[in-house]
Each structure stands twice: as structure tokens, then as C-alpha cells.
Design goal:
The protein is an all-beta fold and about 120 residues long. The chain has no helices and eight strands. The chain has one domain.
Length: about 120
């Protein structure tokens, strides 16, 4: 969790960072994203459609404050078949009934034949 607060700031894909490691038959993902500083929890949902993996980060905040802060989210994504996968990270908030989804990051991850 960060110790700085950007009052009134908006989420920005340019501020997000992603680290990816291949571990066995999993993509190990670390995403430094921005969320409400008073976030209670986050839930991760994974959807796979062919070679596209979409990780949705859902933010839960019962008593929101007027600032955003960086939080590091980690996930292990199982992949059984070698090949090139498009990995998308999207964010949404359960705050005030919001339903807008924002694309935080997108890239290609190559899974080699021998792992």
C-alpha cells in the first residue's frame, strides 16, 4: 500500500505497472494498480476466451475517501496449452453501484512448449 494520496486524481493506465513470471504451468502476475485509498478488499475474476485471458479486478469500498493510492495485486493464472496469449487487466468498482470497466493493461504473454 502506498503512503501518498492524490486527491481528486483519476485512474491512469500510464501509472499501472505489470510484472509477469512463468512458473510451471502458471502465469504469475503482479499488478501495481490504483484504487480508492480506503478500499476494503478486491476480488479477482478470470475469464478465458480462446487465447485471450481477461483478469477483472473488482474494488470494494464501504467508506470511500476522496483519493486514490497504489495497491499491488498478485494472481497466478493457470495455462495448460503453449502459445501466445493476450492478457488483459481490467478494473471496476463496486462503489456506489458503478459498472464502468477500465482497461488497465494489455500485453502478449508467450508460453513456450517446454516448461
Amino acid at each position: 500500500m502506498g503512503d501518498t494520496c492524490a486527491a481528486g486524481a483519476k485512474r491512469s493506465a500510464e501509472e499501472d505497472s505489470v510484472e509477469i513470471e512463468l512458473v510451471g504451468k502458471e502465469i504469475r502476475l503482479f499488478h501495481m494498480g490504483t484504487f480508492n485509498c480506503c478500499m476494503d478488499s478486491a476480488r479477482l475474476e478470470l475469464d478465458q476466451s480462446g487465447q485471450v485471458l481477461t483478469l477483472l479486478e473488482v474494488e470494494y469500498t464501504s467508506q470511500p475517501c476522496r483519493c486514490i493510492c497504489p495497491f499491488k495485486i498478485a494472481a497466478d493464472i493457470p495455462v495448460d496449452t503453449p502459445g501466445d496469449y493476450t492478457l488483459r487487466i481490467e478494473q471496476t468498482s463496486a462503489l456506489w453501484g458503478e459498472s464502468d470497466t477500465t482497461l488497465s493493461w494489455e500485453g502478449v504473454v508467450s508460453i513456450p512448449d517446454s516448461r
